Amino acid sequence: MPTESVAALDIGGTKIAGALVDSTGRILVRAQRPTPARENGETVMGAVESVLAELSASPLWSSATAVGVGSAGPVDASAGTVSPVNVPGWRGFPLVQRVRAATGGLPVTLVGDGVAIAAAEHWQGAARGYDDALCMVVSTGVGGGLVLGGRLHPGPSGNAGHIGHISVELAGDPCPCGSRGCVERIASGPNIARRALDNGWRPGPDGDASAAAVAAAARAGHPVAIASFDRAARALAAGIAATAALADIRIAVIGGGVANAGEVLFAPLRRALRDYATLSYVRDLEIVPARMGTDAGLVGAAAAALLESRDGTEEPAAVVGG
């Protein structure tokens, strides 16, 4: 039995995943529920409580010393609240207080989901060994987190690195966040598909109109599908280059469902980056796929909780000596 574990929650607009994770990042127990994203806040919290109840029924629950939560954002770590754009029933919702109550008073660490992914990739994934990194998820939305000076940098609110809402097209389409031309408004999966459909691409007989279907069409040479991914790649390149110029990062790690398109995304992204990352200290920026897969949010939420429980004095065990 592990000497220490933490409970982890990965909360998004589609699913609420939970796990018990030990101090080496190994997932011991899992639970998951669909996110009732269009329901009221209490219904959404009920799904979170159901996940926690399933975890706490495990005999391994007694080893849990804290809870890490990575949530779609924005989050407010100082207030313990969340206001996910894609969960309208949660606006200023006191998630930390409610999770603490549901777990018998365990300490709770809250970070944005992009920060959680950065924690996971730095702990065990593609950013391991890098002191300065941007880690991104490109999926239904676009999020990110930063590692600076060898340490996770969530910022005071828990949202640092949220690259999806950097504006890269000043007169671009309105974004649900209230701004215009955000990276997310151009490069997220639904917006890649929207752009392709608006310009004449049509799904096949199965009716699949997702970004994955657009990626398949791009691989087959469909010009509109290729153009939609090229535009997304340019938006990502502009946002990554801006972040690199500001924070002097050495590597950008990209995961999420859209990144599963592989070279359909990464080839035009690397080309576009040459147009944007022009300063001498950002020209050698590495762009690599994420390695942690669908468990990144859980492992990263656990890493954030472990770091908090150790008062920032050391990295989780898998990073030490790595």
TrEMBL record:
Domain of life the protein comes from: Bacteria
InterPro entries: ATPase_NBD, ROK, ROK_cs
Family annotation (PANTHER family): N-ACETYLMANNOSAMINE KINASE (PTHR18964:SF169), ROK (REPRESSOR, ORF, KINASE) FAMILY (PTHR18964)
Family: Belongs to the ROK (NagC/XylR) family.
Name the UniProt record assigns to this protein: ROK family protein
